[in-house]
């Protein structure tokens, strides 16, 4: 029961964090400059019309009462109304959410699998030429900003070679048929996915490498070798399992940022996701949309951390016993 009690506490803690983020977002929006009624009614609205808007949306109520109404709506899934798109915030976010999940999710899985594989390859022969080359490339990727990587890839593969499109999600007209839409979508996905995955890739390579090198010198690995276990079995079955714990921690944090983790990449490649939506919402002062994106981000981070806790329970038996 140790694992179930642990997860129950984590679920309660995650819910409290989401509510805290919603509370802080509400207060920040209230302190933001500008009158929401003017944003809804326009600069040329009459005072009578502005007063009608304040009464309709409850803007004339005390802040405490507005906060209670906000949480009542939030607990029922109502994130508010977007003045920019003239539709509910939840609908606007859901239209863009799948696009961001496709981009960040593909970059995340690609970098996670390749990063762990290269980390194992690097740590299998530490301080060799292969290890030094992989580590140097990882440090180069890690220290290069995402927007620089994106611009370099555009210069090389769009301007010079003209191999990939400069932006967009698909070719206009390809959505008429599934057989043309999917290839076009994957074709447009390659460059932004590679751009976003470089930072993730470097992190997983370095974490896996350092964790494996440390685990290979531990007592339980020496015991496995003394029992006659082969080097590959020691590396995969014993050392790698413990070396992946910090990778799981970092991966859960980055997975939690899947909603807003591609703001720069989406804007560079004109990818219609949540990141570009957040920039538009801030520029147009669509406060309800900004708050909704913050709440969705908090939920995604909490869900990702909860997933990491479950994976930890599988990898680390001490959690099952309350250790």
Please describe what this structure looks like.
Helix content is 75%, strand content 1%. Strands 1-2 form a two-stranded antiparallel ribbon. The chain has 13 helices and 2 strands; from the N terminus they run H-H-H-H-E-E-H-H-H-H-H-H-H-H-H. It has helices spanning 2-31, 36-41, 47-56, 63-75, 89-124, 129-143, 146-160, 178-216, 219-226, 231-256, 263-268, 274-283, 287-315, and strands at residues 81-82, 87-88. The mean pLDDT is 81. It has 2 domains: 2-88, no CATH class; 90-319, Orthogonal Bundle (MetI-like fold), CATH 1.10.3720.10. By secondary structure, the protein is an all-alpha fold.
Beta-strand portion reads under 5%
Q: What is the number of helical segments per DSSP (H or I, 4+ residues)?
A: 13
The CATH homologous superfamily of the largest domain: MetI-like
- Uncertain runs: none
**Radius of gyration, taken over Cα atoms and rounded to an integer in Å:** 24 Å
What is the share of helical residues? Answer: over 70%
Q: What average pLDDT do the residues reach?
A: 81
CATH topology of the largest domain: MetI-like fold
User: How many structural domains?
Assistant: 2
Write down the CATH class of the largest domain.
Mainly Alpha
Tell me the structural class. Answer: mainly alpha
């Amino acid at each position: 029961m140790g694992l179930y009690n642990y997860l129950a506490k984590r679920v309660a803690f995650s819910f409290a964090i989401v509510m805290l983020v919603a509370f802080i977002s509400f207060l920040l929006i209230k302190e933001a400059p500008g009158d929401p009624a003017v944003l809804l009614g326009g600069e040329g609205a009459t005072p009578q019309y502005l007063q009608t808007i304040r009464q309709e949306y409850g803007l004339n109520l005390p802040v405490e009462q507005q906060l209670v109404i906000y949480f009542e709506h939030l607990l029922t899934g109502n994130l508010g109304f977007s003045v920019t798109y003239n539709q509910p915030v939840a609908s606007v976010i859901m239209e863009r959410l799948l696009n961001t999940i496709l981009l960040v999710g593909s970059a995340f899985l690609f970098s996670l699998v390749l990063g762990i594989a290269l980390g194992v390859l690097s740590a299998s022969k530490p301080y060799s030429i292969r290890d030094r080359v992989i580590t140097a490339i990882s440090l180069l990727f890690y220290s290069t900003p995402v927007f620089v990587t994106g611009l370099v890839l555009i210069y090389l593969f769009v301007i010079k070679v003209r191999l990939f499109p400069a932006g967009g999600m698909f070719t206009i007209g390809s959505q008429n048929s599934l057989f043309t839409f999917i290839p076009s979508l994957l074709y447009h996905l390659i460059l932004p996915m590679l751009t976003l995955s470089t930072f993730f890739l470097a992190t997983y390579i370095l974490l896996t490498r350092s964790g494996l090198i440390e685990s290979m010198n531990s007592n339980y690995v020496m015991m496995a070798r003394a029992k006659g276990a082969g080097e590959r079995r020691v590396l995969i079955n014993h050392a790698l399992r413990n070396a992946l714990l910090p990778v799981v921690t970092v991966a859960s944090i980055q997975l939690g940022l899947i909603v807003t983790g591609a703001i720069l990449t989406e804007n560079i490649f004109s990818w219609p996701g949540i990141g570009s939506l957040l920039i538009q919402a801030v520029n147009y002062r669509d406060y309800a949309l900004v708050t909704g994106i913050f709440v969705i981000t908090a939920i995604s981070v909490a869900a990702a951390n909860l997933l990491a806790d479950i994976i930890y329970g599988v990898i680390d038996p001490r959690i099952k016993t309350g250790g």
